[in-house]
Amino acid sequence: MLHQLGLRLIYACLLILAVSIAGFALLRLMPGDFAEVLLMSQMDGTLPDAETVARFSAENGFDAPLPVQYLDWLWRVAQGDLGTSFVTGDPVLEDVTLRLGKSLTLALLALGTGLVISLPVGALCAFYPGSLLDRTFATLAVVGMSIPNFWYALMLALLFSLTLGWLPSTGHGTWAHAVLPTLVIGTSISGVLARYVRGCLLEELSQPYVRTARSKGLSDRRVLLFHAAPNVFPAVLTLTGLQFARVFDGMIIVETLFAWPGIGRLLVDSLLSRDYPLIQACFLVVAASYVLINLVVDYAITLYDPRVRGVV
């Protein structure tokens, strides 16, 4: 177990390393002189002279070969130094740490909301397959999965903030500020989860051991909750982990629309201001979060079901 855990950690580190190389190279290989583009963004579009560009490149190490720049950046990251923001002059690590906590709070609230909605709905649809209830929830799930997050977020803000005045449409600081962003992300992933739970439960309910349990006189509800549901838990946990990672993607839009000070909004702000150290740090944090979440989910599954330790 420990040997396998060590191997997976090594693979995860290699994957994060590969992603960091790709992100670093993509930013540096953009068309045009990299240092000149950054200077123009800091000078409100004014074209800098050659001497200024050369001095800026030398100060930030942009005149060195690309592999040397990457290794220098990687060495500083390994020491906990993500650089300094070109815009604010603050350490990037402080900004990212502060924003990451806000995003994790929102992500956990959204995932909890998605599970609270999807698990009972999926179980009810599997318990009454083909019924009006099943068809109604199936239609709602498809509609929910088809609606873009930005449009859904605007509609909720229009209804609950501008029309009813119940909730704030932007900002943070109180629980009320988290309601609308949580609803947008949580309900957007609940459709996928509910349909998946329904499908997994229906497959389990068709297995021979379920017929045996029913032949022994167990009620349908007991068979569903205590025999079929535990067996679909690993599959549902896997999809939940993937959806949790997908939440970070949705945050880029939702945090920007609701002015939530998370890592998604920080990434958008850094892209608009061409704050290169901040862009690279956000890219690394999001990629590392995705890899680590999937790693934790895989090991949670092996702890729950030791039979899959050899294949996870």
From TrEMBL:
The keyword Oxidoreductase does not apply. InterPro entries: BPD_transp_1_N, MetI-like, MetI-like_sf. The keyword Metal-binding does not apply. The chain crosses the membrane at residues 9-30, 106-129, 150-169, 175-197, 223-244, 250-268, 280-301. It is found in: Cell membrane. It holds the Pfam family BPD_transp_1_N. Belongs to the binding-protein-dependent transport system permease family. This is Oligopeptide transporter, permease protein.
